[in-house]
Design a protein that fits this description.
binds magnesium ion, globular, Heat Shock Protein 90, disordered C terminus, alpha+beta, binds adenosine-5'-diphosphate, 164 residues, 30% helix, 5-stranded mixed sheet, 5 strands
């Protein structure tokens, strides 16, 4: 998250987007593909900035859910929000509301669909809550015990670690 933030912090500053971070103490290391997870985070952070063209606040919380053995990351913005109609479509490939002529930003509509696949491959989940005119929260849950399988499709011995 920190290395991803470094990439968007300038963009956020220029757009009057305040960034608030709350990281839990002693968060454990988890097994992930760092490049892929960076791609997910950068898309969520840039989307949040795009939703606040007049500025606002982006709040990033990362915490451990011990009951469910998850690292939970929420990225919350105070942007324009997502209508109920669009909410069911934002994870579809090529769905975008960004139009170069309308709002000066062009979209591919691929960010969230790719992110969805990456998080699913990590055995996690990505969900969204939004209110028009108020803002949006994306939640990314990643398992502390990795469910990623090895290249041959077989679970690696490390995947079988059980917690007592
Ligand atoms: N934080 C957000 N606030 C408001 N709308 C959002 C947010 N994140 C995503 N969206 C909506 O979901 C759509 C799809 O997002 P994405 O897949 O990243 O594609 P793109 O950013 O290229 O449009 C966006 O066009 C936008 O309508
Ligand atoms: Mg995007």
């Amino acid at each position: 998250m920190e290395s991803t933030l470094a990439l968007v912090i300038h963009h956020a500053n220029v757009n009057d987007v305040e960034i608030v971070r709350h990281y839990g103490v002693n968060l454990p290391d988890i097994e992930i593909d760092p490049t892929q997870i960076e791609q997910v985070f950068i898309n969520l952070l840039v989307n949040a900035c795009h939703a606040m063209p007049m500025g606002g606040r982006m709040t990033i919380v990362m915490r451990m859910d011990l009951e469910r053995d998850l690292i939970v990351t929420t990225i919350e913005d105070t942007g324009h929000g997502i209508s109920e109609d669009n909410l069911s479509r934002i994870f579809d490939p090529f769905f975008t509301t960004k139009n170069q002529e309308l709002n000066g930003v062009a979209g591919t509509g691929l960010g969230l669909s790719v992110s969805y696949g990456i998080i699913e491959n990590h055995g996690g989940q990505i969900t969204v809550q939004s209110a028009v005119g108020q803002g949006t929260v994306f939640t990314v849950e990643l398992p502390i015990v990795s469910l990623m399988s090895t290249a041959d499709g077989q679970p690696s011995s490390e995947d079988n670690i059980s917690t007592v």
